[in-house]
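Side project, low priority. Logging it here so it doesn't get lost.
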Amino acid sequence: MGRDPEYLAFMRRRLTEPAAPGNGLQDARRDHAADLARSPRPPVDTVKDLIVDGPAGPLPARLYRPAAAHRPAPVLVYFHGGGWVLGDIDSYDPVVRALAAASGVAWMSVGYRRPPEDPFPAAPDDAAAAVRWVAAHAAGLGLDPRRVGVAGDSAGGQIAAVTAGRLRVPGPARPVLQVLLYPALDLRRDPPQPPDPDGLVFPPSGVDRALRAYLRGADPTRPDVSPLLDPDPGGLPPAIIATAEHDRLRPQAERHAARLRAAGVPVTLIPGTGLDHGYLGWGAFARRPAGAIAEIGAAVRNALHPTPEVPDGTKPSVQRP
């Protein structure tokens, strides 16, 4: 199906905006940050900058705690998108604020090393270390160490999925939930853009170049590169997977959801009907992306604060044994 008229008008405006001058990596990083900076920053009760211990040095982090978050609050350790080479915790501040406000739980956005300066496995190494750090320091931050999950969008969804796989063994850092938002899960190739029902023409993605910079010769069939190829997904934590209908990554996310379910892993699949890759930053501009963000928030809230069952008693929250 096509996009609804309000959202389609928004997308047409986006795609007709003139490109900024410059074609280098720093120009791309600047332009990506400027695009996200146009999104409003929803109010969140508490926002605190932190430093997390990484395997190669300190990592920047930002903790978001909405007023609705209980104490000790469940927390999702979030890894931003940007095709592995773009983005940071400052540029993704509007996105994480929106997710925290929609879900009513705490989110910890963590900056990871990026290629081409630091190729694979730097980003997933940083992500795993960050989850271990959050689990170890949760109590001192007013967070629940038994309810620590991972989350990420796009390239950050790949990092979150890899981290869930790395930390699946029983222990204090094992995530209780993975939230994968239009994730990249099969890095063997850049999938083709599907025909657009509304005739929108998108600029070249540059994903091939980003993948080469990220992998720098690493085997893309490794499960810690392409989580879709995990031979034994049964031990992974419950998943919330959100897709976008007009996204070239949607088929691999749907296949991943099907494989997890077949292995006995609980999955909530949120189809981003009528939406495009990147919609987490557009909730202030059109009703449809705002509705999808609300769906994601409700799914997270229900997973980490399940609704009490009646009359048989209270359904326990998702938490680590």
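Brief comment: DSSP finds eight helices and eight strands in the chain.
Revisit when time allows.
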